[in-house]
Amino acid sequence: MSLELPPPASRPTLYFIGVTTKSSSIRTVFPRWAEHLGIDAVLEGIDLPVHAPAEDYRRVVEFLAASELGRGALVTTHKLDLFTACRDLFARVDPLAELMHEVSCLSTSDGVVAHAKDPISAGLAVDAVAPPGYWSSSGADVFLIGAGGAAIALSWYLSRSGRGADRPRRIVVSDRDPDRLDALKKVHAEAGTDVAIETATTPEPGDNDRVLASLSPGSLVVNATGLGKDAPGSPLTDGATFPRDALAWDLNYRGELRFLDQARAAGHVGVHDGWVYFLHGWTQVISEVFGIEIATRGPEFQALSDLAAGARR
User: Fold this and answer.
1) Tens of pLDDT along 83-137?
2) pLDDT, mean over the chain
3) Backbone conformation region of residue 25, classed left if phi is above 0, alpha if psi is from -120 to 50, else beta
4) CA distances from 104 to 9, 27, 98, 298 (A)
5) Which of 51, 63, 207, 218 would give a disulfide with 138, using CB separation of 3.0 to 4.6 Å?
6) How far, in Å, CA of 88 to CA of 160, rounded?
7) β-bridge partners, 199
């Protein structure tokens, strides 16, 4: 996939930097939300292959910096790679982006500013999957399959000392790439995490099956790899055994979602897709880019959810 930048914006524009942006529900949702929130802007996608060349990420950020009407961008899939490739191009990096070494939101009100919104949006979403009090009452583990930006954010959010006793017994993170795991461990070392963080290099789906078999009952298993959306398949084999009363959460909400089919087949697993994560991810970025307050719960958030529901695909 070669990089194709859009033409210069003729209207205020929010960009969406992803892999298959034309297939996302946000294409239909954003105009509805913009009207509801009183935002005068359009949405424009920019597609890049997974782990694109560094020069392509730099071209995207330089394009945004030169755009008179570009208001900012949401970044998905490319959060770590774009941050690494473009660190010197940012006018400012917010504290969470500095800690996470990733960027999920770019704003342009004062140069191109890098923000990490995943620690907020992923935290809001995981609390909907495993409500407050779940960890202190269950003694369960978390298994994050994939060590990208979302996994870094989730592991940080769930292990924060401010959660007191309501934290997982341990958090296991797997990835095919040991460098990704090293990056995650560095974040936790800098944050002073005191929850047990274990990592596993898993080049084959069977390797993840073996980690899965070691989890305690009630554990949360998260597909944070993009498999099932950005690429076909699942990070597990069909022979994988989920722990009793586990929770399976796919951060994707569209695509084949084979991981969730495997969880349903187990018959004793609570199944959740990434729709609520999608809602929080986008509303957090829209709030930052356009400088408006957007509710994270209650009637106003429900109104935004209802506006989006009809466009889900």
Assistant:
1) 999 999 999 999 999 999 999 999 998 899 999 999 999 999 999 999 999 999 9
2) 95
3) alpha
4) 21, 18, 12, 25
5) 218
6) 29
7) 173
Torsion sign across C-alpha atoms 160, 208, 97, 106 = negative
Tokens of 130: 């495993």
176-192 confidence digits (pLDDT tens): 999 999 999 999 999 99
SS3 state at 173? strand
Tell me how far apart the alpha carbons of residues 102 and 114 are, in angstroms, rounded to a whole number.
Answer: 8
Average pLDDT over residues 152-163: 95
Q: How far apart are the first and last CA of the chain?
A: 24
Closest CA to 84 of 93, 72, 95, 73: 93
From 201, 124, 207, select the one nearest 158 (Cα to Cα): 124
User: Is there a contact between 13 and 71 (Cβ–Cβ < 8 Å)?
Assistant: yes
Handedness of CA 119, 125, 131, 134 (dihedral sign): negative
66: tokens are 């030169």
Q: What are phi and psi of 151, to 5 degrees?
A: -65, -40
- The pTM assigned to this predicted structure is 0.91
Residue 224: Cβ within 10 Å count: 27
Q: Give the span between the Cα atoms of 81 and 60, in whole angstroms.
A: 12
Sequential DSSP letters for 86-151 = HGGG-SEE-HHHHHHT--SEEE-BTB-EEE--HHHHHHHHHHHHS-TTHHHHH---EEEE--SHHH
Under a CB-based contact definition with an 8 Å cutoff, are residues 50 and 230 in contact? Answer: yes
Give the neighbor-by-neighbor strand order of the sheet with 170-175: 196-201, 170-175, 142-145, 220-223, 247-250, 270-272
What are the two backbone dihedrals, phi and then psi, of residue 261, each rounded to the nearest 5 degrees?
A: -60, -40
Tokens 């070494």 — which residue? 101
Rounded Cα distance, 313 and 305, in Å: 14
The length of the chain in residues reads 313
